[in-house]
Amino acid sequence: QVQLVESGGGLVQAGGSLRLSCVVSGRTDSSYAMGWFRQAPAKEREFVASVSWSGGTTGYGESVKGRFTVSRDNAENTVYLQMNSLKPEDTAVYYCAAVKRQIHTVVVVAAQYEYWGQGTQVTVSS
């Protein structure tokens, strides 16, 4: 089993920045691709970003490309999502997710993820 705990959410003005963290615990001896998803009220869960176990491969949703950066520190069992130039439409609950994959693989489909965190709220005011 793997447990994921997100932190770093909050209230920020449009144009501002936040950095989310996701700490991974439990069975961390396998290679996990990590992902970030978000869900706004009355909307479907949306892919935000994914990073391979190696950290060398990343993928982003179209709406966040050029503004968000995903990274990981395997020594600290932590995944990060740096969010810059935030917009009101970025307001959502952000979830961290993990799935076993080969070390250079990213995963963009929510249904393929095995483990999920509880989410952290990000609110961007205009």
What does this structure look like?
The chain has 126 residues and is mostly beta strands. The chain contains no helices and 11 strands. It has strands at residues 2-7, 10-13, 18-26, 32-39, 46-51, 58-60, 68-73, 78-83, 92-100, 115-116, 120-125. The strands form 2 sheets. Strands 2, 4, 5, 6, 9, 10 and 11 form a 7-stranded mixed sheet that branches. β7 and β8 (78-83) form a beta hairpin. The termini are far apart.
Topology:
Elements: E1 2-7, E2 10-13, E3 18-26, E4 32-39, E5 46-51, E6 58-60, E7 68-73, E8 78-83, E9 92-100, E10 115-116, E11 120-125
Parallel strand pairs: 2-11
Antiparallel strand pairs: 1-3, 3-8, 4-5, 4-9, 5-6, 7-8, 9-10, 9-11
Q: Main attributes?
A:
single chain; 126 residues; mainly beta; 7-stranded mixed beta sheet
The topology string of helices and strands comes to: EEEEEEEEEEE
- Cα-atom radius of gyration: 13 Å
Q: What overall geometry do the principal axes of the alpha carbons give? A: globular
Q: How much helix is in the residues?
A: under 10%
Low-pLDDT residue intervals, each spanning 5 or more residues:
none
Q: Tell me about the biggest sheet? A: 7 strands, mixed
Distance between the termini: 40 Å
Q: Count helical runs.
A: 0
Number of strands: 11
Label the structural class. mainly beta
On the 0-100 scale, what is the average pLDDT? 96
Sheet-strand content, in percent, reads over 45%
